[in-house]
Task: structure prediction
Amino acid sequence: MKKRIFSGAQPTGELHIGNYLGALKNWVALQDDYEAFYCIVNLHAITLPQDPNSLREKTLDLARIYLAAGVDPQRSTIFIQSDVAEHAELTWVLSCISRMGELERMTQFKDKGKGNSGAGVGLFTYPVLMASDILLYQTDLVPVGQDQKQHLELSRDLAERFNRDYGVAFKIPEPYIPKAGASIKSLQDPAKKMSKSDENLNGSIFLLDDADTITKKIKRAVTDSGTEITFDESRPAINNLLTIYQLVTDKTQDECLAQFEGKGYGQFKGELAEATVEFLRPFQARVKDYDDDALSRILRTGAEKARSIAAATLSDVYAKMGLR
Ligand code: ATP
Ligand code: LTN
Result:
């Protein structure tokens, strides 16, 4: 039997090339060898206020993005988190075995909510919902970017704790974090990761940006002092741009180095812009491939499949805890 993978993204804004290279690219590659579940995590999105109509729209837009990126609905299960009630139900159970201290240590919570008594409780318990997502499906592998590593460790801790205290109900999931692309940086500040919520729109290349916009953003990207174009962590701006080049062209590091040896930043940026535009072109054409009916069918079928697996896990958990 094939091993299982699970991953998800939030319908909270436009996806950028960091999301694509850090996560989606691997989702597509892994679906050949794994039974894959790709979720649109709209319950995570409401940890911050969302306009209802816009959330509905962004949820469907994100499903289109998964499909355009190459997630194949014949092989992989695509579904909306809130369509499978077990995610919320298991979250309550796992909240009861989570500790305040371990959630307080989550760096994402520290960045977004810690010390602010007006912050929503959902921001605090967010990683427990993520653990439920993963554990409901007896997941083997979770392809994510570097920023999710700590959340995944919490998922493993909660699974181990439950299994030890109540009997084995969960598989212990492994992270899958790519060597290159796990943390694509902002084009404006290579000390920060590229992020949907960055106020500086020039820092991110969005998947639906047109060729002109992409070229402008790359031309404006900050660079490091010096002139060499190499993979070198101590020169984070060029390292980031070269990593993007490597991933959008599928070249090896050596091929990239050889190609830009002795060339200037101007020429490099021109070639990077061109390669990025070419990489996104087929994706952008496919975003309109599915009409609303086709999309609804895929999401309905996905939710049914997901629900049948999630229900079996939850029922086992309830039985082991004495809830039924
Ligand atoms: P953002 O900060 O852009 O809102 P997120 O992590 O909150 O990102 P999601 O859309 O849920 O938002 O993330 C989907 C996937 O993209 C996750 O696996 C995440 O680890 C990955 N990811 C997010 N930002 C980057 C980045 N800059 N580089 C590589 N992977 C990333
Ligand atoms: N927390 C993640 C999104 C997410 C996820 C998941 C990723 C929610 N549930 C399960 C992998 C597996 C984020 O903010 N990027």
In short: The mean pLDDT is 96.
